[in-house]
Design goal:
Layout (H helix, E strand, L loop, with lengths): L2 H14 L16 E5 L2 E4 L4 E4 L2 H4 L8 H13 L10 H14 L3 E6 L2 H18 L7 E5 L8 H6 L3 H4 L9 E4 L13 H19 L4 E6 L13 H13 L3 E5 L23 E4 L11 E6 H4 L21 H16 L2 H15 L9 E7 L2 E6 L11 H13 L2 E2 L1 E3 L9 E4 L7 H14 L5
Parallel strand pairs: 3-13, 5-6, 5-7, 7-8, 8-9
Antiparallel strand pairs: 1-2, 2-3, 4-10, 9-10, 11-12, 12-15, 14-15
Helix pairs in contact: 3-11, 4-11, 8-9, 13-14
This protein binds pyridoxal-5'-phosphate.
The site of pyridoxal-5'-phosphate has 15 residues, from helix 5.
Length: about 450
Amino acid sequence: MNINTHSNFYDKDQKYVWHHLKPYKKNQNTMIVKSAQNAWITDIEENKYLDGMSGLWCVNVGYGREELAEAAKSQMNTLPYYPLSSSHLPAIKLSEKLNDWLKGHYKIFFSNSGSEANETAFKIARQYHHQNSKPGRYKFISRYRSYHGNTFAALSATGQSQRKYMYEPLAPGFIHVEAPDEYRKPLEYTFEEWSIICAEKLEATIRYERPETVAGFIMEPIITGGGVLIPHPSYVKKVQEICQRYGILLIIDEVICGFGRTGKKFGYQHFDIQPDIVSMAKGITSGYLPLAATAVKEEIYQAFATEKEDAHFRHVNTFGGNPAACEVALRNLEIMEEENLPERSNELGNKLRSKLSFLEEHQNVGDIRHQGLLFGIEIVADKETKIPASNEVVASIIANCKSAGLIVGKNGDTVKDFNNIITLAPPLSISDKDLEAIVEKISKGFNTEL
Ligand code: PLP
């Protein structure tokens, strides 16, 4: 492709395509990606980058898996579409497989995106309480710094004001509590003590709001886009106890943490809990086709398992559970099993963490945290005061990483000048050699000797 053709595409891109999340910059070309293989993407200029973010935290099995393309093709030739008001074999097989992965008995409702999976969870929770003669339970509690999606209820549950304030007023009935942050906890407490205090704050909030008005509590096992906040196990356990004590459904958002990202099949499996509802998307197909699911514990589903008039879930999703997407998901999960990718994520995560130790000396690196291949590197202006680094400092590290051939992410807290956590979430199938390349490129990105 010659340079004139390229400039043509850049011009057309600027003219027609509205990019997600991207701040406008006059006459600035956006990278146009044309192909990808394993952990690498290639743009139309033939530049190659190691994709340290698996797209948008989703290409868990890596790019270029022909089996997934074959699964989609073969299913499209057999049955490209049928709504799930009836059934089809790919949805049945995938639901059974998800039950294995969830280690429980769950009914699976399919949709297309993480936002929809959470919307579905909220509606199921409200109707569940209605059908259990508790129609007053309509509120949802979630955590500051979490992200749960772009639709109105999912955004209402989101705890990041920068993503919300332009679209307010959002849905009523969504309340936020603080999530424990080990790096920024008050110094006088151990992390476990602080975690228990945060769980007690959740309980206090439930009481202030009146438990009989609260339908559910939604959390990611590890806050991802809000800066990779790994909880103490006592926190998660206590949260489940509190939810159970007050009759509140525990909804676990596994949209990023699921499918091996954190070193287990699902993120909640690091903790000794069993959620009432699990929402999932992204890694379910490794991003090859859109698919999401809301898994609902059989006991909760029982409120809908009645022939009483109007007791069914009045929710339809045209594309949810598309047969080709389900087939791709099924094959994707099989690949993860065959290649032990959740375990691999755990091993490689530990390996990468120890190889990144050299970064601890960097003047702007306040904290490096990870669970499996989910990493957050917190960038500060001053290690003593932990004041977040400016946007410019963070942006220059990200740009240096890109110049070195590595794509990293940027995430953080709720206010504009606090997007200071660089994230890494490479494909779980990444080779040892490419893992080494990440380390080398990070060292260039941070201008630090290995
Ligand atoms: N939940 C979490 C934790 C997410 O990170 C995201 C998206 O990044 C969503 C939900 C929404 O998913 P989607 O963008 O597929 O709607």
